[in-house]
Amino acid sequence: MLKWILVMLIIVGLTVIGTIMVGKSEQEDYGASTKGNITRLSIIYLFLGVILVVGLALYIYFYG
């Protein structure tokens, strides 16, 4: 179970890092809105990671 949780956390972490790296290469037109978008996406990824870990843990607990 711990192995799958770590895999999911790594995937979510890499996704957040990728989003932030893309946001740092902002263009002139997107300056102000990019920071807000990156923040919102990072929060969404964080919540998604928590939900996925809890869901996987429950699945393994009941069906594993």
Automatic annotation (TrEMBL):
The transmembrane residues are 6-23, 43-62
Keyword annotations from UniProtKB, A to Z: Membrane, Transmembrane, Transmembrane helix
| Top-level taxon of origin | Bacteria
Q: What is this protein called?
A: Group-specific protein
Q: Which organism is it from?
A: Bacillus yunxiaonensis
